[in-house]
Design brief:
- The structure holds two protein chains of two kinds.
- By secondary structure, chain A is mainly α.
- Chain A has one domain.
- Chain A is 71% helix and 1% strand.
- By secondary structure, chain B is mainly alpha-helical.
- Chain B has two domains: 574 residues, no CATH class; 42 residues, no CATH class.
- A two-stranded antiparallel sheet of chain B has the order 1-2.
- In chain B, α8 crosses α20, α13 packs antiparallel against α14 and α14 runs antiparallel to α15.
- The longest helix of chain B has 32 residues.
- The radius of gyration of chain B is 25 Å and the shape is globular.
- Classes of the chains: A mainly alpha, B mainly alpha.
- Chains A and B meet through α1, β1, α4, α5 and α6 of A and α15, α16, α17, α22 and β3 of B.
Chain lengths: 316, 637
């Protein structure tokens, strides 16, 4: 029975199916709202689903220069690790396996999709992909510093005089003491985290790695068919995972007690966050250069996160 | 019988060294048989000690020539094998055995192999003796044997550029370290009139006199030089790059572990200095700058082996930081990372050796696309690269996770913000490690194959076997880390903290208590929140689910079209803006442009500092020693 329950968790909710559907839905919302902001009609909400299924049915071409195994394994690893993350992020009170993972595990799991994209792009053998992976790696170095500082600030606030890296501990603390976002010392960290999300997902203006107008989607240039579909799916799920992580870290106090209702609230919050930190920024900015991106994250965003960390250490 | 095993393990290596020199200079077969037999025998002797020491918890003491202590004074040379020694001894024997197997084919084209194997066995014996001995002066002798064998091996391929220069730098800096160790030991002898580590430890328990502090500073720095922490790291890069790769693996797998062992033994056991907060700060400070400078220097390299050398420095920084925390979790994490570093860095050096063996170069700008020609090496390399970058579920993840946890919990416990910054730096260093291995992956194994590498083939089986063993251990350490912790790390951690037991076994029961050394028992470091086995099962389930989706999706319409050599169709070429495709490879030096421009000032500064002039490095070493001694005098009371 436990096995069946675990399988349900892994395959349906909150694992594979739930993550994929909501991820694609968020991608649809992103595209639709972006179009409305640009005074276009925009595609229907279910367009990402159409795109995904169409790509799954297309032929997959493996170029001469590619290493077949790494080229095909990379997208699968990317999606698998993201779905795994969904199992470890508590949905308010409910968590499938969150007792088994903590912030550091999540920090490393979230790097796997990036690494998979890099390995896949690198394995395709294209020089455009070479430039793309270089930029992807620099982007990763850029946002990882503020990201870890945000996590440590939350951990310190929640743990008090003890060490608390547990996701479940963070959720419980917020249930007792109110959402972390409403503790003013953590507000700069929350803003920093909101800025980390678009870089992690790779939306404009932080999409230097895939810049289609200059390096033709970088690491994805040689991909076609099902692997490309999986990478697109991974990007969509990443939107959901990152916004859900934000919710778990900063808005974990809202809970109704019903899992289904909690899940709906989570999706609603994620949709709002997606529009706020991805669509809105996307609509009003142009792509950065890679060195500007790096400088932005290591100065402004890191500065915000550090302010929070120091405030929290001062006991505020 | 069993108490003879440690000394036999050291003796067979030295005996083997002489036999190789006498009988092995002519016949290749004799030479290989003697060297491998000595290495395997030594391995067996040490492995036989695992059950009694690690599992049953015995501590083995052995007095040479049966010169046992008289009236509480130790005069003879003693070997003492507790769990900490044995932990490092296991790393040492594993490393030199695998290196020996690898050398058979790797070194076949070199001349004067008799000398090579002699020096190889001397180096192995020196390091093994160093980690097993319980006598300060014997330790120094072994340090010297180790250093000189290492210097000679660095210069072994002296037809190439830079080998002699590297050896000279190693010699100068290494000698500075050795002479500091010797001076420190002389000071200790002056104060305690004995050289047995157990007895000195008991006598110093009451507190350190100024002489004692000076001795601590000198011996500590002496071993710091041997483990190449910053600012003594400069000769390491040259030496690791110039030495034959089988020896580079020994350098990073055991020679700098010997230095780490020396530091742990000196600081924890002999001087019992870890209750002192300043000592902890010093170690963590040195560890943090070591990991940071090591990794940033590695990012700037474009030679495969030099890059690995700087990563060795950086990873030792993690070990020193974790060990320096002085908490049970810190020591466990540090020891675990030391072990993992031996495994994954050994593996990576072997991969670099394989590339060098087949292509003749390790320049990242001249290689590319080798994963098609050497697929097995590429897989091993990826395992090593993911391990060192700390991606789950490999072993580096488990130990780094412990390091972060240990540093941050120390920060929370002591309320010291500096330790929190150490956690941040450790994570950033980990990302940079990933970056530089992405660079190697792209520059060597993926991307496009240059014409000069068209005829490259996979390396022979005897070179692949050590790589497979190392890869398997890397995955095992990450997945079954509860097992590793129970049988290796927890006993070793307890041995590092429980000094009175170490003293009593050597000097007789009650000796420690008579000098006021308290019996310390530690609660084993607790790990919650993470269960890698369950995690792995989850991962596999998700992966399977996906494969099913893909396979079923495939049957409907899509198909995989793989490029065959006979298919001449432009759709299998890489996209080249509509032009005809040609060879164009994004090499090592082309990567991470944005990062390098933003940090240009820093990189220029570091390049200026690493001038390659040995005088500068010697000045760094002496200055750093002075600073460390001053620090200890000011803050340790």
């Amino acid at each position: 029975m436990t096995i069946l329950k675990d399988l349900f968790y892994i395959l349906v909710f909150p694992g594979a199916l739930f993550a994929a559907v909501i991820g694609l839905l968020l991608a649809g919302i992103d595209r639709k709202v972006l179009a409305r902001m640009q005074k276009r009609v925009g595609p229907p909400l279910r367009q990402p689903f159409y795109d995904f299924f169409k790509l799954m049915g297309k032929e997959t071409i493996i170029p001469h220069a590619a290493n077949k195994a790494a080229y095909l394994a990379a997208p699968v690893m990317s999606v698998a690790s993201l779905m795994l993350m969904m199992l470890f992020i508590p949905i308010f009170g409910f968590s499938a396996f969150s007792g088994r993972a903590d912030l550091i595990v999540l920090l490393y799991l979230i790097t796997i999709p990036g690494v998979a994209l890099i390995i896949g792009g690198s394995a395709s053998g294209s020089p455009y992909a070479g430039i793309g992976i270089s930029r992807e790696m620099v982007t990763m170095m850029a946002y990882e510093l503020p990201f870890i500082i945000v996590l440590l600030a939350v951990a310190r606030k929640v743990g008090g005089s003890e060490l608390c890296f547990s996701m479940q501990g963070i959720a419980d603390w917020q249930a007792a003491n109110g959402c972390a976002l409403f503790h003013w010392a953590l507000i700069p960290a929350a803003i920093a985290m909101l800025l980390v999300i678009p870089a992690e997902v790779g939306t404009q203006p932080f999409d230097v790695a895939e810049a289609e107008t200059e390096i033709c989607e970088g690491p994805l240039i040689e991909y076609s068919g099902a692997p490309l579909g999986l990478f697109k799916l991974a990007t969509a799920i990443k939107m959901f995972v990152m916004t859900a992580l934000f919710t778990a870290l900063f808005l974990g106090g809202i809970r109704t007690g019903f899992v289904a209702l909690d899940a709906v609230i989570l999706v609603a919050i994620c949709a709002v966050l997606t529009v706020l930190c991805m669509t809105l920024i996307h609509a009003v900015t142009a792509r950065l250069k890679i060195e500007h991106l790096f400088k932005f994250y290591w100065t402004i965003v890191t500065g915000l996160a550090l302010i929070s960390l120091i405030l929290v250490w001062l006991g505020l | 019988m069993m108490q003879h095993f440690p000394v036999l393990a050291v003796m067979v290596l030295f005996l083997g060294a002489f036999l190789v020199e006498i009988f092995g200079s002519k016949s290749r077969l004799t030479r290989n048989i003697i060297a491998l037999a000595a290495a395997s025998l030594s391995f067996v002797f040490i492995a036989a000690l695992v059950k009694p020491v690690m599992i049953d918890g015995q501590i083995i003491s052995y007095w040479m020539g049966n010169w046992t202590p008289v009236e509480g004074y130790a005069i003879g040379i003693g070997y003492e094998i507790d769990q900490l020694n044995l932990f490092f001894a296991l790393l040492v024997v594993l490393t030199f055995l695998l290196s020996g197997i690898y050398s058979i084919r790797y070194m076949e084209k070199d001349r004067h192999l008799g000398h090579y194997y002699t020096l190889y066995l001397m180096l192995s014996g020196g390091v093994l003796g160093l980690v097993l001995t319980g006598d300060m002066f014997n330790m120094f002798v072994m340090v010297e044997i180790m250093t000189f064998a290492a210097v000679a091996l660095t210069a072994f391929r002296n037809n190439g550029r830079g080998a002699l220069e590297a050896a000279f730098k190693y010699l100068v800096i290494g000698s500075i370290g050795s002479s500091m160790t010797l001076t420190g030991i002389a000071l200790l002898y002056m104060q305690c009139h004995t050289l047995s580590m157990a007895q000195i430890s008991a006598m110093l328990a009451k507190g350190l006199s100024p002489t004692g502090i000076m001795a601590l500073a000198l011996i500590f720095i002496g071993f710091g030089v041997k483990s190449f922490i910053v600012p003594f790291h400069a000769p390491a890069a040259d030496a690791y790059a110039a030495a034959p790769t089988s020896i580079s693996m020994i350098f990073s797998g055991m020679v700098n572990k010997a230095g780490v062992y020396g530091m742990i033994r000196i600081v924890y056991t002999v001087f019992q200095a870890m209750d002192l907060e300043p000592m902890s700060l010093l170690l963590v400070f040195l560890g943090t700058i070591t990991m940071f400078i090591g990794v940033t220097m590695a990012l700037a390299q474009h030679d495969f082996k030099r890059l690995l050398a700087f990563h060795s420095i950086s990873q030792i920084g993690y070990v020193i930081t974790a060990v320096g925390l002085g908490t049970a979790l810190g020591i466990t994490g540090g020891l675990f990372h030391a072990m993992n570093h031996t495994l994954f860095k050994g593996l990576l050096f072997l991969c670099a050796g394989a590339v060098l063996y087949r292509t003749g170069t390790t320049d990242l700008d001249k290689l590319g696309g080798l994963s098609k020609k050497m697929p097995k090496t590429a897989i091993c390399f990826l395992v090593g690269a993911f391990s060192i970058s700390g991606l789950p579920p490999f072993n580096g993840f488990a130990s780094k996770w412990m390091v972060y946890q240990a540093t941050y919990s120390k920060a929370v416990e002591t309320g010291n913000f500096a330790y929190a910054l150490v956690t941040v730096i450790a994570v950033v260093v980990s990302v940079m490690t990933l970056a530089s291995f992405i660079k190697v992956t792209q520059a060597v194994f993926f991307g496009q194959l240059p014409e000069s590498c068209e005829n490259v083939t996979e390396v022979p089986l005897s070179m692949r076997i050590p790589m497979w063993i190392m890869s398997a251990l890397c995955i095992f350490g990450g997945v079954c880390y509860g097992f590793v912790n129970k049988y290796l790390l927890a006993p070793a951690t307890e041995a590092a903290i429980n000094v009175s037991r170490y003293i009593d076994v050597m000097m007789g029961d009650g000796y420690a208590a008579s000098y006021g050394v308290v019996d310390m028992t530690v609660a084993p470091a607790g790990f919650s929140y993470w269960d890698p086995l369950v995690w792995l099962v989850l991962f596999i389930v998700v992966l399977l689910a996906f494969c099913i989706v893909i396979v079923t999706g495939r049957n409907t319409r899509g198909e995989v079209l793989e490029a065959k050599p006979e298919l001449v169709d432009p759709k299998y070429d890489t996209f080249f803006s509509g032009e005809e495709s040609m060879h164009s490879h994004v090499g090592g030096s082309d990567l991470f442009w944005g990062f390098r421009t933003d940090w240009k000032g820093y990189f220029d500064f570091m390049q200026g500092m690493h001038s390659g002039i040995v005088n500068d490095y010697a000045i760094w070493a002496v200055t750093a020693t002075g600073c460390a001694a001053l620090f200890m005098f000011l803050f340790i009371h």
